[in-house]
Specification:
Blueprint: H1 4-48, H2 52-88
Length: 99
């Protein structure tokens, strides 16, 4: 007969895999978009010259890209990390019961 605990372990591994896939996609796509937007503004700053307007505009674009794209990237990394912990089986409950 099969071990009744193996079904629970299989579902935990599936859930962990699903979270890792979703988190990796979110972090990868948002991170690449943020990198392209921030890097593009820095390249444009050097291409058009280092005047005060260009440096200020590039700094504000990098800051905006970091805020708007950085938050979903961090959420994706967090989902991937939680999924990896669930997949490996070393996820501890967040609240431990008191004795």
């Amino acid at each position: 007969m099969t071990d009744p605990r193996s079904g629970k372990r299989d579902s935990e591994r599936f859930t962990g895999s699903l979270l890792m896939a979703c988190g990796g996609l979110i972090a990868g796509l948002c991170g690449l978009c943020t990198l392209a937007l921030g890097g593009g503004s820095i390249v444009a700053m050097f291409y058009h010259g280092l005047s005060a307007d260009n440096v200020g505009g590039a700094f504000s674009m990098v800051l905006m890209a970091a805020i708007i794209g950085g938050i979903p990237t961090l959420i994706g990394v967090w989902l991937f990390w939680i999924g990896r912990r669930i997949y490996r089986g070393d996820a501890r409950p967040l609240l431990q019961p008191r004795d």
